[in-house]
UniProtKB/TrEMBL annotation:
<dbReference type="GO" id="GO:0030288">
    <property type="term" value="C:outer membrane-bounded periplasmic space"/>
</dbReference>
<dbReference type="GO" id="GO:0046677">
    <property type="term" value="P:response to antibiotic"/>
</dbReference>
<dbReference type="InterPro" id="IPR006311">
    <property type="entry name" value="TAT_signal"/>
</dbReference>
<dbReference type="InterPro" id="IPR001466">
    <property type="entry name" value="Beta-lactam-related"/>
</dbReference>
<keyword id="KW-0378">Hydrolase</keyword>
<dbReference type="GO" id="GO:0017001">
    <property type="term" value="P:antibiotic catabolic process"/>
</dbReference>
<dbReference type="InterPro" id="IPR012338">
    <property type="entry name" value="Beta-lactam/transpept-like"/>
</dbReference>
<dbReference type="GO" id="GO:0008800">
    <property type="term" value="F:beta-lactamase activity"/>
</dbReference>
<comment type="similarity">
    <text>Belongs to the class-C beta-lactamase family.</text>
</comment>
<dbReference type="InterPro" id="IPR058136">
    <property type="entry name" value="AmpC"/>
</dbReference>
<feature type="domain" description="Beta-lactamase-related">
    <location>
        <begin position="61"/>
        <end position="420"/>
    </location>
</feature>
<dbReference type="InterPro" id="IPR001586">
    <property type="entry name" value="Beta-lactam_class-C_AS"/>
</dbReference>
<protein>
    <recommendedName>
        <fullName>Beta-lactamase</fullName>
        <ecNumber>3.5.2.6</ecNumber>
    </recommendedName>
</protein>
<dbReference type="InterPro" id="IPR050491">
    <property type="entry name" value="AmpC-like"/>
</dbReference>
<dbReference type="Pfam" id="PF00144">
    <property type="entry name" value="Beta-lactamase"/>
</dbReference>
<keyword id="KW-0046">Antibiotic resistance</keyword>
Length: 422
C-alpha cells in the first residue's frame, strides 16, 4: 500500500472515530478531603461510577508522593486521575515557597514538551479543516524556505522528530524570526529524512508555525482563541493573563532558586503551555473520546465537536518504531499491557539527548486502544507527565514545580494506573 493510500485509509478510520458525533464534557461536584505533606496536602475525589475501576488506596499514593517530594525537594505537586471520565484530584505542598499558597487542582504549571501534543493537535485540526495536509512541505507556509533542504521535509517529519537531525534547542544565536529563517535556510540534514529520530524543539516548533500560518493566525492566537476553547480548556494558556498570575505556580531549579520559562524563538510552539491538573485531565479525556466530569456543580457541558475529535485521534497515528516505543505525532505510545522497564526505556533521557534509529511504519499505524500513550515535559523549574490507556479509559496527570527525573514521574504514574490491574 502506498503512503497516500494508507493516509486515505487512516482518514476514513478517523472519520469513523469522530462519527459526526459530539463528545460531551459533563459536570459534577468534587468532595474535598485533607491531610499534610510538605506544608499542605489537599485531596479531591469524585464519586466513582459502579462500573469504574476503584481508585488506588489513597495512603499508597500519598506515601509514594511524600517519598518523591522528600527525595527531590519538591515544593508542590498535583495529580489528576481519570477513570471512565470520573476524576480524582490530589494536591500536595505549595505553589510558592514565598507565598505558601497551597497547590490545588486549578494551580497553573508549566508543562514543557507536553505542549507539543497541543501543537500537534493544532496541525491535525488544520488538516481536518482542509487548510493543510501533513504531507505538505513547511515551505508551503513559509515561502522563504522554498528550495532549501528544510523545504524538502514534510510536516510529518517535523511532528515526529525525523527531519534529519535538528538540535534539541533553537541555537542561542537565533534571537528573532529573521535569524530563525536564516538558520533554517542554511540547515543541512545529518541523516536522510525519515530514518532517524532526533528529538528537537525547532522541529515541532516549525510544525506549529506552519499550522498557525495555515489558519492565518499568530500561533498564540490560534491556540488560545481557536483550539483551546474548542477543547473546553478555560484554564490553559500560552500567555498567562494578569488575572490568573496568582494561580501560576513558582518553579524552582536545582539550587532552589525561583525560575519560570523564558520567552524565546519557537518557545510558544514547543514548550509554551501553562495549564492545571483539572484542565489537563480533561485534555486526556478528550484524547480518549471520553465524556469528562467537572468539579463545578451546575456547569453546562463543554463540547468537543467531531472535527476536534478527529484531529485528536489523528495525533495517535503511529509513524515510526523507535525501540519499544512508537512515535506518533508528538505523542509516544507503547503496546499495552506494558512493563515498567519498557516505559522507563522509552522515557529515558537518552531518547531525547541522542539520535535513535527510526523504522518507518508503512502503512502508518491507525489509532489503537490497546496502547499506553504518554508524554513527558520539563522546563527549568517544572516537571510534568501525562499517560493514558484508551482501551481502559484511564489516565493520569502529574505536575510538579521542580524538574524531577522522568524515571520518578513514570514510576509514580505506573503505580497509580496499574494499581487496579493486579
Amino acid at each position: 500500500m502506498s503512503f497516500h493510500a494508507a493516509r486515505r485509509a487512516i482518514s476514513q478510520t478517523l472519520a469513523a472515530i469522530a462519527g459526526g458525533a459530539m463528545f460531551s464534557v459533563l459536570a459534577v461536584p468534587v468532595v474535598q478531603a485533607g491531610g499534610l505533606v510538605a506544608d499542605s496536602v489537599r485531596s479531591a475525589a469524585s464519586a466513582q461510577s459502579n462500573n469504574a475501576e476503584p481508585v488506588p488506596p489513597s495512603a499508597n499514593v500519598d506515601d509514594a508522593v511524600q517519598a518523591l517530594m522528600r527525595e527531590y525537594d519538591v515544593a508542590g505537586l498535583a495529580i489528576a486521575v481519570t477513570r471512565e471520565g470520573r476524576h480524582e484530584f490530589r494536591s500536595y505542598g505549595v505553589a510558592s515557597l514565598q507565598t505558601h499558597a497551597p497547590v490545588d487542582p486549578d494551580t497553573l504549571f508549566e508543562v514543557g514538551s507536553i505542549s507539543k501534543t497541543f501543537t500537534a493537535t493544532l496541525a491535525t485540526y488544520a488538516q481536518v479543516l482542509g487548510k493543510l495536509t501533513l504531507e505538505d512541505s513547511p515551505a508551503r507556509f513559509v515561502p522563504a524556505l522554498k528550495g532549501t533542504e528544510f523545504g524538502k521535509l514534510n510536516l510529518i517529519h517535523l511532528g515526529t522528530h525525523t527531519g534529519g537531525g535538528f538540535p534539541l534547542q533553537v541555537p542561542d544565536a537565533v534571537k528573532d524570526d529573521a535569524q530563525l529563517m536564516a538558520y533554517l535556510a542554511a540547515w543541512a540534514p545529518r541523516y536522510a529524512p525519515g530514518t532517524t529520530r532526533t528529538y528537537a524543539n525547532p522541529s515541532i516548533g516549525m510544525l506549529g508555525v506552519a499550522a498557525a500560518k495555515s489558519l492565518e493566525q499568530p500561533f498564540a492566537q490560534a491556540m488560545e482563541q481557536t483550539l483551546l476553547p474548542k477543547l473546553g480548556l478555560a484554564n490553559t494558556y500560552i500567555n498567562v493573563p494578569a488575572a490568573k498570575m496568582s494561580a501560576y505556580a513558582q518553579g524552582y531549579n536545582k539550587q532552589n532558586a525561583p525560575v519560570r520559562v523564558n520567552p524565546g524563538v519557537l518557545a510558544a510552539e514547543a514548550y509554551g503551555i501553562k495549564t492545571s491538573a483539572s484542565d489537563l485531565i480533561r485534555f486526556v479525556d478528550a484524547n480518549m473520546g471520553v465524556a469528562s466530569e467537572s468539579r463545578m456543580p451546575g456547569r453546562k457541558p463543554n463540547v468537543v465537536n467531531a472535527e476536534v475529535a478527529q484531529a485528536l485521534a489523528a495525533t495517535h497515528v503511529g509513524y515510526y518504531e523507535i525501540g519499544p516505543m512508537t512515535q506518533d505525532l508528538a505523542w509516544e505510545q507503547l503496546a499495552y499491557p506494558v512493563t515498567l522497564d519498557d516505559l522507563l526505556t522509552a522515557n529515558a533521557g537518552t531518547m531525547n539527548s541522542q539520535s535513535q534509529p527510526a523504522k518507518a511504519l508503512n502503512p502508518p499505524q491507525a489509532p489503537r486502544g490497546d496502547v499506553w500513550i504518554n508524554k513527558t515535559g520539563s522546563t527549568n523549574g517544572f516537571g510534568a507527565y501525562v499517560a493514558f490507556v484508551p482501551a481502559r479509559k484511564i489516565g493520569v496527570v502529574i505536575l510538579a514545580n521542580r524538574n524531577i527525573p522522568n524515571e520518578a514521574r513514570v514510576r509514580l504514574a505506573y503505580r497509580i494506573l496499574e494499581a487496579g490491574s493486579h
